[in-house]
Amino acid sequence: MEDKKHGEEQLCTLEKRGNLFFLTLTGAGEHRLNPNLISSLRSALFRLQSDPSASSASALITTAHGKFFSNGFDLDWAQSSEPRLQLMSSSLRSLVHDLICLPMPTIAAVTGHASAAGMMLALSHDYVVMRRDRGFLYMSEVDIGLVIPNWFMALMMSKIGDPRARREAVMRAAKLTAEDGVRIGVVDSAHDGAEATVAAAAELGEALVARKWDGHVYAGNRRVVLREVLEAVRYDETVTKVADKAGSKL
Length: 250
Description:
alpha/beta, 6-stranded mixed beta sheet, 4-stranded mixed beta sheet, 12 helices, globular, delta(3)-delta(2)-enoyl-CoA isomerase activity
């Protein structure tokens, strides 16, 4: 399965290789999360689930081309317009919901910077493997004068158990390398270069596929584990505040 749309800019691709699905954010840009990109990602997940093998013996790997995994929300597109910010926020929250409900294991292969909402996209996967020689996990909100949404924090609390590590990430806006991520438990493994990172994700994916879990049972258990996250993504209380921050960037 490979997604190609003639005559349109390709924001992401979905390719099946054996038992693994590879969802790739394409191009050398920052992969800012605006409704167009998020819609493309959600459409790819919808097509994935239409594959007869998607609910058994499969895994998803999400990665990106270029310097960035995702540099967060596209606030330049939103232009501090509250309706646009509402649309962007609700779109991402729907994507996170889709990933949590996906009937297979999911792995983020982070080969570049993942900032703010981009870090949330990575953490919405079951596993995170990361390139050690380039890229940071970075919650930038305190640096740029924004309040973190409750649902961001709910997701971080589900992935980072140590309160001191959460303080480092959120309250100090630490730029976490892959090895920092391994240290605090948010990254599963660190690798040299983009190719090695994606290869490690594929190896992990194959190991998970070999367990032959029922995808719907797997997703059901994930929904129980991340119940608080699913409740939190229903609402983003910060959109009005962000609308008042003209020129700020997540």
